[in-house]
Design brief:
Blueprint (H helix, E strand, L loop, with lengths): L1 H17 L6 H50 L15 E4 L7 E9 L11 E10 L6 E8 L3
Antiparallel strand pairs: 1-2, 2-3, 3-4
Length: about 150
């Protein structure tokens, strides 16, 4: 019966190894579920990141357009002898803005008291709007009268 004892020893060894080797189907399914949940979270972050980058691109483009208009207005002549007609007090709008954008500006005279700007100045406020922006981009500058 040496063969019988040997066989029983192997059977016991096999049973003890069975409890410690490999993964059960439940463990594998749980690991796959956790991995899938993590991948979905990363995918969601990517979608949010792409949306925010697109929004930031719109804000940057609107800021550049507004800054360009403001620089053009600040560069105009404002003197006692001659003032550029484009600096006349009033509200104006860009004739051919880029698609989707609305660019408007308001020019007002400075005053001694009760105003936002000092005497002998022009307050220039440029507003850029886009349908995808939550709020308009507003840029302001003060143009002093040159001697």
């Amino acid at each position: 019966m040496p063969f019988g004892k040997k066989y029983r020893r192997r059977e016991k060894a096999y049973l003890s190894l069975e409890n410690h080797c490999g993964f059960t189907l439940l463990e594998v399914l749980l690991a796959i579920a956790i991995l899938a949940f993590g991948i979905l979270a990363v995918g969601s972050m990517q979608v949010t990141s792409i949306r925010q980058n697109a929004y930031a691109n719109q804000v940057t483009a609107a800021s550049v357009l507004g800054r360009d208009r403001l620089e053009g207005l600040v560069g105009l002549v404002y003197k006692d002898a001659y003032t550029d007609p484009a600096l006349a007090v009033g509200t104006y709008q860009e004739d051919n803005p880029p698609e989707g954008y609305t660019i408007s500006w308001e020019i007002s005279d400075g005053c001694a008291s009760g105003c936002d700007s000092p005497l002998n100045t022009k307050l220039i406020e440029v507003t850029v709007q886009h349908s995808r922006l939550h709020k308009p981009i507003v840029l302001m500058d003060i143009k002093p009268k040159a001697p």
